[in-house]
Design a protein that fits this description.
Order of helices and strands: HHHHHHH
Number of helices: 7
Radius of gyration: 15 Å
CATH topology: Four Helix Bundle (Hemerythrin (Met), subunit A)
Largest sheet: none
Mean pLDDT: 93
Structural class: mainly alpha
Length: 144
């Protein structure tokens, strides 16, 4: 659980940083290149951290590694459901979209997802990953 707690502190720190940009879309942030690159890096690290947590939980519960980063959110949803913790399907789809956004930030090959996220406010990511952290904390109490 210590490893997950450390990751969740990291995640919380990144959410605090993103709060500075709440109310803005990525398209609006794009007007300031330095802010855009800063926000992209924070989002990348946020998503990477969540994927790491997913892998830790899946290894603990199922003793296996997820097939993919995107699949790790579906696997986590299954584990949570079995433990009475609800991750809504719409949230899981958004988590998967954030993995695509992260991939676009890092590799520049999924332009369509960036177009989608360009219109969404940073608030969506902050609220989504806050719910994620809350659910992981609750799950951790049950599996550790």
């Amino acid at each position: 659980m210590k490893q997950i707690e450390k990751k969740l502190h990291f995640l919380a720190d990144h959410l605090k940083i993103l709060k500075e940009f709440e109310g803005k879309t990525i398209d609006e942030i794009r007007k300031n290149y330095k802010d855009l690159k800063f926000v992209e890096k924070i989002i990348q690290e946020l998503v990477d951290c969540a994927i790491d947590v997913n892998e830790i939980v899946i290894k603990k519960v199922k003793n296996e590694k997820p097939f993919s980063s995107k699949r790790s959110f579906r696997d986590l949803q299954d584990i949570c459901d079995k433990n009475g913790i609800a991750f809504e399907d719409k949230d899981i789809k958004l988590f998967i979209d954030t993995v695509s956004l992260r991939n676009e930030i890092v590799h520049s090959y999924d332009v369509n997802i960036y177009l989608t996220w360009g219109k969404r406010k940073i608030d969506v990511i902050v609220a989504l990953y806050k719910r994620y952290a809350d659910n992981i904390l609750n799950l951790g109490k049950l599996i550790y």
